[in-house]
Specification:
The protein is of the alpha/beta class. The protein has twelve helices and 13 strands.
Length: 328
């Protein structure tokens, strides 16, 4: 890691550690909230209006609500040939499949990146969310890697993608702590498999012939710095590259939290599950407990809850996030 980064606050690790420390103190158990669903939604509308700042914490459930599903019709449309050949039934499973060659591996990933990073979600969830907070003092922290916030108009300087970005490659050489934009490569790799762009400039599977399930050897992506192999900039182990932009966003998040710690803040958690609660959920609980003027709102399908210790400051809304947001 570049030593200059140590001079900046690290919002990622600072908030994770404080969240871990704090969650141990919530000994009174969990609550589904003190208000009925419709009353909680009405109060959320008021909190969005009155809040001096909004901190949005978004997990995979938000993109699922937007239609970014990894199985079903979307999977069949883009990966039916891979499914027939290799047997997996969803994009997530395909990401772990031991493909027999790099040409096939990167053909799969070109499609996966394209549909989950460069295409628009089927439902305008992110655009609706932006319309609700665009005139507020807001910041977004997300574990999602699909770039949907920025595509919807959110200010890049107010976004922190903690776990990476489908749109970035990194070298397998650990000495190269940089990331590289992959959009041009993805478009070339999609065309090489036989996808055709429609009148709107969006790739579609051709109706008249089968797709190739591989790319030319010369199109296998390489690091522009030293020609080494690349991988996606997704956090899976300690090889994840936290580049300059990542550290800048982490520092901006820390500064935003500190400057609003005693103000009327709405901590709006959307679609965050229990796989990685230490990144968003636990810190949001802590921030709410430490600030009597804060409100914690959790929108989630079947997992909306809060500690009983902050029940009076919390709104727990169980259901489809899109259905809730579009009615606001």
């Amino acid at each position: 890691m570049n030593r200059n980064y140590t001079k900046q606050p690290d919002g990622y690790r600072e908030t994770i550690q404080s969240g871990i420390d704090t969650v141990r103190t919530f000994r009174s158990g969990l609550s589904a909230g003190s208000l009925p669903r419709e009353a909680a939604i009405e109060r959320l509308k008021g909190e969005l209006k009155e809040a001096e700042a909004v901190v949005i914490g978004a997990g995979a459930g938000l993109s699922t609500a937007a239609g970014f599903t990894y199985s079903g019709e979307r999977f069949e449309r883009w990966f039916s040939d891979f499914s027939r050949e290799y047997g997996f039934q969803d994009m997530y499973s395909g990401g772990f499949y031991p493909f027999p060659s790099k040409e096939i591996f990167w053909a799969f990933w070109a499609r996966n990146i394209y549909v989950n990073r460069y295409m628009a979600p089927p439902k305008p969830v992110y655009e609706k969310l932006f319309s609700l907070v665009k005139d507020k003092d807001y910041f977004v922290i997300t574990t999602n890697v699909d770039h949907c916030f920025q595509k919807a108009g959110f200010d890049k300087s107010r976004l922190f993608y903690t776990q990476g970005d489908y749109g970035l490659f990194q070298s397998v050489n650990p000495a190269i702590q940089k990331t590289f934009d992959n959009e041009a490569w993805v478009m070339e790799a999609m065309a090489a498999q036989g996808f055709k762009k429609n009148a709107a400039g969006v790739f579609e599977p051709p109706a008249d012939k089968p797709l190739l399930m591989k790319i030319p050897t010369e199109l296998i992506p390489r690091c522009p710095e030293d020609g080494s192999e690349v991988t996606l900039n997704l956090r899976s182990d300690d090889s994840f590259v936290e580049d300059e932009g990542w550290h800048r966003a982490s520092a901006a998040y820390a500064r935003f939290l500190r400057s609003h710690s005693d103000r009327r803040v709405l901590y709006l958690e959307l679609g965050v599950g229990n796989n990685t609660p230490v990144i968003i959920k636990y810190p949001f609980w802590q921030f709410t407990r430490d600030n009597p003027r804060a409100t914690y709102a959790c929108l989630n399908y079947s997992e909306a809850c809060c500690p009983k210790a902050i029940e009076a400051q919390s709104l727990c809304i169980d259901g489809d996030t899109w259905e809730v947001l579009r009615g606001m």
